[in-house]
UniProtKB/TrEMBL annotation:
It is a multi-pass membrane protein. Pfam families: COX4_pro. InterPro entries: Cyt_c_oxidase_su4_prok. Keywords: Cell membrane, Membrane, Transmembrane, Transmembrane helix. It comes from the Archaea. It comes from Natrinema gari JCM 14663. This is Cytochrome C oxidase subunit IV. One of its GO terms (cellular component) is plasma membrane. It is found in: Cell membrane. The chain crosses the membrane at residues 7-28, 34-55, 67-87.
Length: 88
């Protein structure tokens, strides 16, 4: 189990990432809409990784569980792409 210091650092990192998302959309003269959306998606992926890894304690799970979840995620993405293709 991680220490309070680790949780505090992860919390601060999450706050900074949320501030980054705010900055993307509130400074349109610096960031275009496409850059803001792409940056927000990247920041969201980092935030999900931090939350799942530390607050849900998934970083201590065996690697086989990680590979299983990545395989499931890949299959969901394939299904989503197939559904999007069939709608067209």
């Amino acid at each position: 189990m991680a220490s309070i210091r680790t949780y505090s650092l992860v919390y601060v990192a999450l706050l900074l990432l949320a501030t980054g998302k705010f900055a993307f959309f509130h400074f349109p003269e610096i960031f275009t809409e496409q850059v803001a959306i792409a940056g927000t998606m990247v920041l969201a992926a980092i935030k999900v990784s931090l939350i799942a890894g530390y607050f849900q304690h998934l970083k201590d799970e065996p690697r086989s569980v990680t590979y299983l979840m990545l395989t499931a995620l890949f299959m969901v993405l394939l299904l989503t792409l197939a559904a999007g293709y069939s709608i067209q």
